[in-house]
Write a structure and sequence with these properties.
The complex is a heterodimer of chains A (about 130) and B (about 70). Chain A has helices spanning about 1-25, 30-65, 70-95, 95-130. Chain A is an all-alpha fold and about 130 residues long. Chain A folds into two domains: about 1-45; about 65-130. In chain A, helix 1 (about 1-25) runs antiparallel to helix 2 (about 30-65), helix 2 (about 30-65) packs antiparallel against helix 3 (about 70-95) and helix 3 runs antiparallel to helix 4. The radius of gyration of chain A is 20 Å and the shape is flat. Chain B is mainly alpha-helical and about 70 residues long. Chain B has helices at about 5-25, 30-60. In chain B, helix 1 runs antiparallel to helix 2 (about 30-60). The two termini of chain B are about 20 Å apart. Classes of the chains: A mainly alpha (about 130), B mainly alpha (about 70). The interface of A and B includes residues 22, 27, 33, 40 and 76 of A.
Amino acid sequence: MEKEMLFCCAVALITAFSCLFLRESRLAALALLAALAGGALILLRILPHLQLLFAAFRAFAADCGLEGYYFTLVLKCIGIAYLAEFTAELCRDAAQGALALKVQLAGKLSVLLLALPLLAAVTATVAGLL
Amino acid sequence: MEDISIIFFLLALAIAVTVLHTFLKQAGRDEYAYLTLVVGLAIALLKVLPVIEALFEGVQSVFGMY
C-alpha cells in the first residue's frame, strides 16, 4: 500500500508542475487535459484497493444482518457523488462554474432518486408502527 | 495499467506544438500555424480518451453502477 501512496504522490506532483508549464504554452487547454489524466491515473491505481475495502464492508454488513440490496444502494450513491464532484471540480478548473453547478445538481438529484425507495421503506415501517 | 508516461507525452506535445506554431507564424503561414494547434489538441484528446474511459469503467464496476 505504501508503494501506491508513493506513486500517487509522484503522479500528483509531476502533473501539478506539468500543468504550470502547459498553461504557459500555446496549447493552454492541455493543462486541463493533463490534470484530468493525472487524476485518472491516481484513481485507477487506488480503485482495486477500494474494491477490497468495499468487499470487507459488504461482509461486515452481512454479519450485521443488513440486506445486500441496501448496501449496494449506498455504494451507488457514493459512486455518483464522487463522479459528480470529480467532474464539477474539473469544470471549475476550466473556469466553468455554471457547468460545475449543473453537474452537482444532477448528482444530487440522482442520489435523491436512488434513495427514494429507502425513504418509502422507512415511511412504510413508521406507518406500520402507528 | 496506464502509467505516468502520458503526462510526459503531453508535455512533449506542448513543446513541439509551441515551437512549430512560433516557427510557422514567423514564416507568415498563419493558417498552418492554427492548424498545428488543432492537430496537437486532437492528438492529445485521442491519447487521453482511453485513460478516461478506463477510469469511468473502473468506477462503474467498483461502485456497482451498471
